[in-house]
């Protein structure tokens, strides 16, 4: 019944504002500067910054999500802006949100994360207020930037709520920053850097290790004790077009098929399994595919992977939402609803492990990344748990291109 709510032309929610338009150009760099709107320590474009920077505020960048039934279609219009998708088509994909009352949990999770970061920063004696803004829903990144400037904060360090390298999980957030600077008219008045992608930082990996360890203990309570023989671990992340995956990361790294996006996920999964030492087989799977069926996206889909497990003698599956920092809609629907229903139909015991959320190690790790830039921590002293890191403070030229859109203005990296 709930899935049909709003099938008619949706109302515009009170107070709704469309997201800012795409930037037409990047803010002008000073002489010798290769990174738009960067701090002096960053503008030369070196991969890692070992000079301390006195930031005076933090921008927390989120994806955004609807907070009521009337928000769903306007939100999806924001997500698909520029693709010419009619509302009737959007309504076909809106049922995930309508099933949950039109509310995505992602905004509340980011409010909780902001509060946790504020508390951790205060506990460390750091006067760095966190300003939160979204790509696709209010408050937008431009709102957060205006709030920071109104409070007298003009040298800002951004954190995107995404750990990996790809167009949608890194470069698009850098484009959001360029959009915000142009929309607010603050070019030349603010300096904005961004912390490195944190896929292999201990603060990000520890919550997944803890979650898997808890799930293994729960399986034992259900009588499944031979984990190596009976259990498969599925590390799940958002599928993206093959072309986007192949272009993720700096071209000079030569990651090949799947690019940095797949390589980073595989490296993190290997690290988690090594820390646990449970001997189970595991695989990287994908979820939440969208777009035209003729366009290749990363596979296997998690539901297809589940279908193969009974024939291989597996009795249970542990689903790890490796690509997600909190329990937003792709976790609630694609994993907790669709994937668990598939597992139940196949007679598999299935548990979905926790996302980082506001796990103390995750919050502490994000503040460690802030302090890393405040202090100018040398690259050889930066914590990382895979051979791929520590990742770059300044994104490299040509990193994470979107084949369809090409390179748009972006901050915190060298053009294009």
Q: How many E-type strands? A: 8
Query: Structural class, from helix and strand content?
Result: alpha/beta
The rough form would be described as globular
Q: What's the architecture of the largest domain, going by CATH?
A: 3-Layer(aba) Sandwich
**Order of strands, widest sheet:** 2-1-3-4
- Gap between N and C termini, in Å? 48 Å
Rg estimate, integer Å: 21 Å
Total of helices: 13
Q: Overall pLDDT, averaged? A: 95
* CATH fold assignment of the largest domain: Rossmann fold
Would you spell out the secondary-structure blueprint of this structure?
Blueprint: E1 57-62, H1 72-79, H2 87-93, H3 95-99, H4 106-123, E2 130-134, H5 141-150, E3 155-160, H6 167-184, E4 191-194, H7 202-221, H8 227-230, E5 231-238, H9 242-246, H10 259-276, E6 281-287, H11 302-308, E7 316-320, H12 329-345, E8 349-352, H13 360-375
Parallel strand pairs: 1-2, 1-3, 3-4, 5-6, 5-7, 7-8
